[in-house]
Amino acid sequence: xxSHTETNTHGAGQHHGGPKIYTANLFALLFLTVLTIAAASFxxxxxxxxIALAIASMKAALVAxxxxxLVWDKPVNAIIAIAxxxxxxxxLMFDFIDVTSRVNFQPRNGPNMENxxxxxxxxxxxxxxxPRPLDPAPAKAEEHK
Amino acid sequence: MSTTTTDVHAHxxxxxxxxxxxxxxxxxxxxxxxxxxxxxxxxxxxxxxxxLFGGLFVGFGLMQHQYPREFIEAHEHLKxxxxxxxxxxxxxVNTIVLLISSWTMVMGVNAAQTNQQKKTVRYLVIxxxxxxxxxxxxxxxxxxxxxxxxxxxxxxxxxxxxxxxGTHGYATFFAFYFMMTGLHGIHVVVGIVLLSWLAVRAxxxxxxxxxxxPVDLVGLYWHVVDxxxxxxxxxxYLIS
Lengths: 145, 240
Description:
Strand content of chain A: under 5%
Order of helices and strands of chain B: HHHEEHHHH
Largest sheet of chain A: none
Shape of chain B: elongated
CATH architecture of chain B: Up-down Bundle
Largest interface: A-B, 59 and 61 residues
Strand content of chain B: under 5%
Low-confidence stretches of chain B: 1-16
Order of helices and strands of chain A: HHH
Number of strands of chain A: 0
Structural class of chain B: mainly alpha
Mean pLDDT of chain A: 75
Radius of gyration of chain A: 27 Å
Distance between the termini of chain A: 78 Å
Helix content of chain A: 40-55%
Shape of chain A: flat
CATH topology of chain B: Four Helix Bundle (Hemerythrin (Met), subunit A)
Structural class of chain A: mainly alpha
Number of helices of chain A: 3
Low-confidence stretches of chain A: 1-13, 140-145
Strand order of the largest sheet of chain B: 1-2
Oligomer: heterodimer
């Protein structure tokens, strides 16, 4: 965004960045890699995923800003990159809302469950697999007689 | 050539040194405009890449929600037993290899920008070698999975007690694992081809501070490949 008093922002030997910054960036990235591996060995419950993705996003930001020159580039490239991640965020967000607000409409205690088979696997409706241990057991037929 | 270029000069096809650069195409006013246009196109392509892998990440997230227990059990098979502990050795080493290759890439771009032809070639060759190391480790990993029958979908034939059949969770995990790391691996192979092409051209002396667009754009591509792995690594190897 600086004024064009110098010859050019590109092409005439006037370059931003440089080996020192790149090397420092590499060490920052390696440090964050060690950090994310170390963090994964502790049990923070559901926060583990959040920590892992937060560190990954920091690393991705470092790569984009310094290795991909976004800090020094014309802003239009950064706008395109941010737009890409923004739409990915929308995609992920609506997906998250969908998954967390879903209700299982599979009838589990209806009147005609005498010969009920386990609900078909939603990913492979052609096969009826053995019931998964985590699933609630199908309703017993006796309860409804 | 030099006689025809004088016509181009009359149409403003002149860079700041008043000489026509052989790489300067006539439909661009300046070399800078030409460079910025190419770069803009590359960034648009990068966004399509982000969205391509984004869709796969969303699918992975959905299936992890569907099979939380299976996904955690299956991911243990991406780790190796080291000193009595399971540690994602291959994944960690590959992460470091790719990060270093990103650094050699950006150093190569920097060398091209500053007219250091030999350095450019050297950094590009190191980047190619690191990419090959990455693929080599990937090959060892895949060979183990193939041997254990930890394959996607109907090919899943793992026999041991820990990951019994009867649920689609394990096969689903490995379907996503092979699909995403495989697509990423294809990107690495494409990267090697592009980097080799650059190394040949750099060795020939095609690039200088006036014209290094291909080095810069392939560099951007290579960093995207690195960036995708930055997300793949924690999601596949570290989630517990």
